[in-house]
Amino acid sequence: MAEELYGALAEFRSPEDLLAATRKAREAGYRNLDAFTPFPVEGLDRILRLPRPTISFVGLAGAIAGAGAALIMQFYVNYDYPLNVGGRPIYAISAFAVVTFELTILFSALAMLAGMLWQNGLPRLNYPVFGTGRFHHASKDRFFLCVSADDAKFEAAKTLAFLRGTGALSVELVPG
Amino acid sequence: MSDRSDILPTRQSMGGIADQLTGIPLHFPVERRWLIAMMFASALLLLLMVSVVELFTRGVGIWGINIPVNWAFAIHNYVWWLGIGHAGTLISALLLLTGSEWRNSLNRFAETMTLFAVVCAGIYPILHLGRPWYVYWMFPYPASMSVWPQFRSPLEWDIWAVLTYLTVSLAFWYTGLIPDLAAARDRATRRGWQIFFGITALGWRGSARHWLRWSQAYRLTAALAVPLVVSVHSEVSLLFAVGQIPGWHSTIFPPYFVLGAAFSGFAIVSIIAVALRSWFGLENLVTDDHLDVLGKVLLATGLMTGYGYVFEVFDAVYSGEAHELQTLADRFVGAYAWTYWGAVIFNFTPLQALWWRVVRRTGWMLLLISVSVAIGMWLERYMILVTGLYRDFLVSSWSHFTPTFWDWSTYFGTIGLFLVPFLIAIRLVPMISIFESKELLHEEKEEQQHG
Q: Alpha helices, DSSP H only, in B281-356?
């Protein structure tokens, strides 16, 4: 059965308890950790050593693409269908500014939303932790720490005992 | 940071907030009142449908528009609705970035308000087209006639601005909603709700990795939304300023429009806040402190709008241009002076009561003042449009504008178009941000413990 495990899940009452337990787990040598919380907990990413997110670069790429698309589109339609209105310039950058600005923002915002979902692996309707008995409290008022079964130090019984020792309210194994 | 410590009563528990807020869609407590409101809103929506069918059958001649007043209710209400939409984005985005925690109880329904107000605004230019079935000509698609839309025309900018605004508002709203939909999914007991929230929450599980990326995406979208709000309404004022009509060019126009928009929008947010709070008994989350802040914001944006009024007069007088002065005189004493003085009275007279703390903290008083502001801003948009147009440069083309039944029915109909989806949204999704309320509560409790 051990190879079908996803990991071990421990429940905590407060963000402080979770942070303390996560720190202990890191010190004990566990590396493959994840936490589940009802709201973003400050400092958790540093203790878990999560890499800095790259959504901003996705947004920047979207912005450049949006500005480029808008300018190319406006130059092209005026090139293809030049209309002389009172001798005003055909390629009027100032008149193109509004649409260029709007599309820069539109592409950037949509790229960031899509990038965030993509990097988070969403939408994904099922996930191993959903199968456990107490996980639905993670969206209410409980804070969970999960040691993955892939962790080099993971051994079901020992890991559970360790988690219990960090002051968890409950611990359980997550089937894979 | 010191004034944030009491915005939510710290007696309550996080679990209590989650149960209370997810309980609104899951075990709807005010079925009967909701149904009555829904019937009223549907009647208005039906009125809109009838008006639109009549309009499409007989043309824009059923409205009171003429030459020279060829823009009236359509653009007037477009600007009014768009303005209302702006406060939602400002509350959500600007206050998120500046870290004003009092926004947490207000942002969700303010954003929802934005979405549907922008829809109401967006249909007006289409209705006004005369041949609305040709609206797709505004999009650059490879037409067999090889005619492209004219990107040097302000009316073309409009469609891009409004559609971008709507799409970005929707993306921002949904991004903020995902964690709360997950909370509702985890509380749901009936199969239908489990499926609905299960699918809409996209499998959100509150993982630390997810929160990290989510926070960055949410904040950056907010950072984009703020200049977007300003640009959309400045663009609306550009539509006016690019024309040659007297009274439409003052340099104060872009900020004056944006502030007026925020002013009317905050008024509607106050109305919704007071109404929802009493409907659902949310006094513990939308507290008197929230109303107090809303009142202060309303007063501040109102005074800034007032500055716009003063500056507009100054601008006309200082220019010394005959037609500008004529338009100014028309506003003060002309045929539509009632719209000017109506705007001044409705916008600024009851507003002054907000200097008193007790007024700001009393729901019904704030509600009445907000209704007055909504009317005042509606009159202001009417004034800007009609007084500019009805007497232009040639005496031979002077004419008056009188709204017809169909003008009014379309306008009241759009209120239905706003209310129906808004009421459905109240029924389906948590109307107050659950995880942000919990986050704030946690911070407050921590602050109490550590002094």
A: 288-319, 322-333, 337-348
How many Å apart are CA B12 and CA B445, to the nearest integer? 10
Regions of chain B short of the pLDDT cut 70:
1-6, 451
pLDDT averaged over every residue in chain B = 87
Alpha-carbon distance of B87 to A88, in angstroms, equals 37
How close, in Å, is residue A126 to chain B by CA atoms?
6
Q: Tell me if B122 sits within 8 A of B166, measured CB to CB.
A: yes
Cβ contact B216–A108 (<8 Å):
no
pLDDT at B451: 58
**Omega into B68 within 30° of 0, i.e. cis?**
yes
Examine the pLDDT at A1 and tell me if it is beyond 70: no
Whether A98 sits inside 8 A of B235 (CB atoms) is yes
What pairs with residue B88 in β-bridges? none
Residue of B148, B158, B202 best to disrupt the A interface, most CBs of A under 10 A: B148
The pLDDT tens digits of the residues spanning B264-276 come to 999 999 999 898 8
Cβ(B337)–Cβ(B377) below 8 Å: no
The pLDDT of residue B252 is: 83
Identify all chain B residues contacting A115, using CB atoms and an 8 Å cutoff: 217
Residue B419: the pLDDT is: 93
Q: Is the Cβ of A169 closer than 8 Å to some Cβ of chain B?
A: no
Nearest CA-CA partner of B260 in B381, B112, B119, B96: B381
Contact indicator for B78, B414 with CB cutoff of 8 Å = no
**Choice between A176 and A127, residue whose per-residue pLDDT is larger:** A127
Would you mind telling me the total number of residues written for chain B in this entry?
451
Report which of A123, A127, A125 is spatially closest to residue A144, judged by C-alpha positions.
Answer: A127
- A29-83 pLDDT, tens digit each: 888 888 888 888 888 888 887 888 888 899 899 999 999 999 999 999 888 888 8
pLDDT at B267 (0 to 100): 92
Residue to test with chain A: of B155, B180, B209, most A Cβ within 10 A: B209
Which residues in chain A are closer than 8 Å to B435, comparing Cβ atoms?
A: 38-39
List, as ranges, residues 116-135 from A with C-beta within 8 Å of B: 116-117, 119-120, 122-127, 129-130, 135
Closest CA to B267 of B359, B169, B377: B377
Q: Indicate the residue of B151, B207, B216 with minimum beta-carbon distance to A78.
A: B151
CA atoms of B201 and A125, how far apart (whole Å)? 9
Whether B208 and A141 lie within 8 Å, measured CB to CB: no
Q: Which residues of B touch A74 (CB under 8 A)?
A: 151
Q: What percent of chain B is modeled with pLDDT above 70?
A: 98
* Distance from C-alpha of A35 to C-alpha of A49, rounded to nearest angstrom: 12
Please give the pLDDT value at position B287. Answer: 84
Residues of B in contact with A123 (CB under 8 A): 202-203
The two tokens of residue A88 are 């005003």
Q: What share of chain B is helix, strand, coil (3-state, %, to 5)?
A: 75, 0, 25
Structure tokens at B191: 């199969």
What DSSP letter does each residue of A77-134 carry, written as one string?
Answer: HHHHS---STT--SS-HHHHHHHHHHHHHHHHHHHHHHHHHHHTT-S-S--GGGGSSS
- In the structure, what pLDDT confidence band is assigned to residue A131 with cuts at 50, 70 and 90? confident
User: Which residues on A lie below 8 Å from B207 (Cβ)?
Assistant: 34-36, 120
Q: With CA atoms as reference, report the closest residue to B74 among B403, B330, B339, B415.
A: B403
The C-alpha atoms of residue B379 and residue A34 are separated, in whole angstroms, by 56
